[in-house]
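Look over this record before class:
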Amino acid sequence: MSDGNFLIYGANEYTGELITRRATALGLKPILAGRNRDQIQALASSLGLEYLVFDLSDDDEIRRNIAPFKIVLHCAGPFSKTARPMIKACLDVKIHYLDITGEIEIFEYCASKDKQAHEAGIILMPGVGFDVVPTDCLAAYLASLLPEATHLELAFKGSGAISKGTALTMLENSHKGGAIRQNSTIISVPVAYESKTILLEEKEISITTIPWGDVSTAFYSTGIPNIKVYTAVKPEGIKRMKLMNSLDWLIKMPIIKNYFRRKVNQIKGPSEDLRNSGKSIIWGRVFNEEQQFEAMLTTPEGYQLTALTSIAIVQKLLIDHIFSGYKTPSMAFGPDFILEIENTNRTNL
């Protein structure tokens, strides 16, 4: 295993497998890893790759297994349960850490480790997939148009289909409610705290706030102190989301969570046809009391985009890196990085 190689942990998960297949299609030879021997072995065998089997319960075991590599791309969520031990191990053995999280607490945790990452000479870059590459790059682009912006709003519309891993993360974090950034501080707000309509592709789209990763990351990328992130939801869906605010006590009950976990395990994720034919639309606006700017991105479907952006970032870091510490994608590669991804376009509105 050469120093130029990289490890994909959770390669047998839905998104991890998409990322693995993207890597091999480009001629890369990642080492696959995870805790499910049968699944990891089967995937590695089908692609002619090497593999490792270990879980994240023992710090020494993690360090021993990741030590030969230059980069760990961590794909096993929920990241609120799995990211910290992997990040600690990467800091200890001085290996770049990437992941595909969308969880605010993990972005904030990585940001809190900026000094240690600098000292170790490594990069901590969570969110190298759909969350948060396109939104982060759009936020940075808009901030370049209005450096004096006081407010940032982002919204996205995708296919609506999700993987088991995404659903499980949503379930595990459902009791936390929503979040926005206000006067530079992340604050908790009710689910579907604010809703409105915006014009996307000449259609009025209903959107509502969600605790998306950019509530954390966009602040580091832009310095803008007030940030809200929205997703497209039909009005009846927003009503159901608001209902969760009065039922949070019920959602926290173990018997209820276990019921939904069983349901989540039945989710297969978007089909190949949907991934290939679908697209995502990202909208953003920056403003202050005097000016505003809006722009829009169109990208491949979210899971497809995650495979494209995560491996593009791995390729950049395998070649060289001239920075260390906590970085968002746009901080590392600039706001135009997203435009390097196939079938991606940006439009000023």
